Every structure is written in C-alpha cells, then in structure tokens.
Amino acid sequence: MSDARKSGKKNQKNSKNGLIPGPFTSGEGPARVWVVGGGQMGGVIVRHIAAQRLGVRLSPAVVDPNPEILKAMKQEGIEADSSLGGLARKDKSPDMVLLAVKPGVFLKPDSEVAGALSGLPPGILAISVMAGVSLSHLRDRVPNLRWVRAMTNLALSSGKGMTLLAASSEVTHSEQSFVYSLFSEMGRALWLPEDSFDAATAIAGSGPGLLSLVAEALADGGVREGLSRETATLLASWALLGTGALLADKGHLPELLKAKVASPSGTTIEGLAVLERHGVRGVIIDAVRAMAARSREMSRNF
To answer: What pTM, to 2 d.p., does this model score?
Structure first.
C-alpha cells in the first residue's frame, strides 16, 4: 500500500494551499457533491459535508424519495430532490457522488439509481457506503465512474466512526487523500486491501452491535444489584467509552489494560474468572467468525 493511501491527512496538507488538486479546487466555485440516499448514513455524511469543515469548498445536494427526509434537508438549508433525474435536470453533473442507498436499490436489474449514474459523464469520483457491494460489482454496474468503497458505522454521527476504505486503481492519490480526510473528520479511517473487508467489517461494522449487548448486560447486572436503570445504563456506557478511549487514544493493548484493572483478589478478577468459566472469550471469537462469513456470503449473493 502506498504512503499516500496510508496517510491521507499528510498528503492533503502538502497539496497546494492545503487543498486537494483536481475538480475539488478548480477555482470555478464549490465542488458539487451528490449524496444519493439521505437516510441514517447518508444523512450523517451530507450534514458533515454541509458544515464545511474540510478546508475544501463543497456544495452538497441530497437525492431521496422519502418526503420526510427531503423536508428535513431543506429545513437545514441542504438542497434535496426526490430523484437523480430531477437533480440532473437542474444540475447536469456533480464533481463527486456518494452512494448511500440499500444495496438492492442499486443492484436490481431495473435500478433507476444505477441507470441515472450510468448517464453521468465518465470519470466522476464516486464513493459507495453500501454494505457488501464490492468494487467489481460497482464497476460492472456503473463503469463510467471511478469508485471508492467505504465500510463505516453510525458512530460517525458522534465523531467516533471507524471507516474502512478501498479504491479502484483509477482513483488518484490526491483523491484518496480527500476521501481519507472526509471520513477521518468523523472518526478514524483506514485503507485496507478489499479482501480484508469481510473480517474487518465483522469488528468495525458489527462490533457496535455486540458491544451494545455487553452494555445492556452490564446495565442489567447493575439493576439486579439495586441500581436504577438510568444509573446502570449511564455507568455501563461510560465504562465502554472510557475503555475505548484508553485503547484507541492512549494506545493501551487490551491485555495490558485488563491486567492493570484486575488487581489481586479484587472485584475485576472475580468477574473475569466468571466470564472465562463460561467461555465468553471463545464465544466472541466465534461470533466474529460468523459475522465475517455472513459478510462474505452477502457479497457473493449480490
């Protein structure tokens, strides 16, 4: 993997005037970004783009058939349209597309979305956040665009999302740097070989679901011991948040952090002994394997 792809922020700062060369700094006004799908993931990303925090002038527009989403976007000052065709009649073509629809909407044989994207001028940069849809599927369906695949999660909305990235060979280093910076501003981003996506998705994409179960169980344990549900949930949430900060921000290894917390004859080692007796470690490892297998299965079925 090239240094440019490993360190997008550094490359961005080294570009002229701190901006990305190419269509994003053409000098002809803000770069036009179409976000196709304004639901949970697309909504988070378009609102981040609209906040103009990237040092690059961007003008976003959302495409979504849901009237409630359209209303919300327009109330926030974000341009919105119910169809790609409607937006194209007003806008002709974007500098970048971000595709955040359900995979079936894009991959079905008579897909309006795929058809409209295929009608765009060739060479436009496109980012897909659709789960399980490979770069080869994206290129096969819409070969005129240059694709980046992103796997992310809803923690983007709190600035703590983890996004995995893979790019087709046509995407330039400066564009990779821009994409890296876009997602890094909402958490962390990591370029990976695409064949690592299934295993990484099991941890980064599905991990929040497993950890939510852990938080719920911790809270249940607190309620069993007499705490209110509100207090127990708050304590469990902050336990996970604090642990994540120590691991991610401070660079502690999990095994060493566990050793620091588990003092001799203390409360933590008692709890860990119970978990080990019930094989929780092995169950979690098996869960990661099952999630990775399901991710591979979904990719094959598309």
So the answer is: 0.82
